[in-house]
Amino acid sequence: MTGDARISRRGALTAGATLAAGAAASGGLTKTAAAADDVRRFDRQQTINPKNRILLKGATIVSMDQKVGDLAKGDLLIEGSKIAGVAPEINAGDAQVIDALDCIVVPGLVDCHRHSWEGQLRRINPNSPTLADYMNATHLSFAKFYRPLDHYVGNYLTAMGCIDAGVTTVIDNSHNSRSAAHSDAAVEALFDSGIRAVHASGQPGAGDWDHQWPQDLERLQKKYFSSADQLVTLRMFSGPIRENWAVARKLGLRITTEFQGPQQAALLDPLAADKLVGPDNTFNHCGALPDRTWQIFLDSGANINVCPRSDAQYALGEGVCALQHAWDRGIKPGFSVDNETSYSTDMFMEMRMALYVQRAVAQNKKFSGDQNPPKPLMVRDVLHCATLGGAHCAGLDDKIGSLSPGKEADLIVIRTDDINLYPSNNAVGTVVQAAERSNVDTVIIGGRVRKYRGQVVGLDMVSLRTMIDESRNHLFAAAGYKPDIFAELLPKLS
Question: What's 245's domain CATH number?
Answer without folding.
Answer: 3.20.20.140
